[in-house]
Design goal:
Elements (H helix, E strand, L loop, with lengths): L1 E2 L1 H8 L10 E6 L31 E3 L1 E7 L12 E2 L4 E2 L8 E6 L1 E2 L14 E4 L2 E7 L1 E7 L3 E5 L4 E8 L10 E11 L4 E4 L8 E5 L1
Antiparallel strand pairs: 1-14, 2-3, 2-13, 4-11, 5-8, 6-7, 7-10, 9-10, 11-16, 12-15, 13-14
Length: 205
């Protein structure tokens, strides 16, 4: 799941409200080319599936959750000889008050590294590189959207946006999933599963 860079600014500006059930998932074909840097509002989207074959134009709206966790209470601790994907957030097994995000994916080493305690500094751990991202994390997440009896084809992206504002030009884009190749409903349920650690991460230094 990739977060649009302007979504972080939207969150800080109060444009995203997890108390309003206007977090909307839409499905798009390869006619849309996401730009994480410049795409900021729904009016940048193209290639949404048309209504039919188990899909309704405008997508699926739902509520979101927002949780804040102090570093030493974060549920994922770093382990020896373990594979980590890009963006995974961990704390040391013995908490030191800081969180670390994988900025280079890989496998951790066979022994515990010396984690830096200055925000913005890194440590190499096996083939993983960890970045100190702060003392607490706020996570925004939604449930998995589901389209039942789906027979649509050509799905390349699922896009999450926040649509409480009045027009497409003021409705923030949040994140998207790239399926790499086109996917189809195959007459069953088409489900998009958010990442286990949530969709949007905001860190406190």
């Amino acid at each position: 799941m990739l977060v649009y860079a302007p979504a972080l600014l939207a969150a800080m500006n109060g444009e995203l409200d997890t108390d309003v059930a206007s977090w909307t998932w839409t499905l798009h074909t390869s006619a849309y080319t996401p730009d994480r840097v410049t795409h900021d509002y729904v009016n940048d989207l193209t290639g949404e599936l048309a209504t039919g074959a188990g899909y309704t134009s405008g997508g699926v709206a739902m509520a979101a959750t927002r949780t804040r966790t102090a570093a030493n209470s974060w549920g994922t601790s770093r382990a020896n000889s373990t594979a980590y994907t890009l963006g995974t957030v961990v704390r040391p097994a013995t908490g030191n008050g800081f969180l670390y995000r994988a900025v280079v994916a890989g496998s951790s080493g066979a022994s515990i590294p010396t984690f830096p305690t200055v925000v913005g500094t890194t440590v190499v751990d096996g083939t993983v590189t960890w970045l100190n991202v702060g003392t607490a994390i706020t996570v925004i997440n939604t449930a998995a959207p589901v389209w039942n009896s789906a027979t649509f084809t050509g799905v390349r992206y699922a896009v999450l946006s926040y649509r409480a504002a009045g027009t497409a030009a003021t409705q923030p884009l949040v994140a998207y999933a790239d399926f790499v190749t086109d996917r189809a409903g195959q007459s069953g349920s088409f489900t998009v599963n958010p990442p286990p650690q949530g969709i949007v991460h905001l860190f406190t230094s």
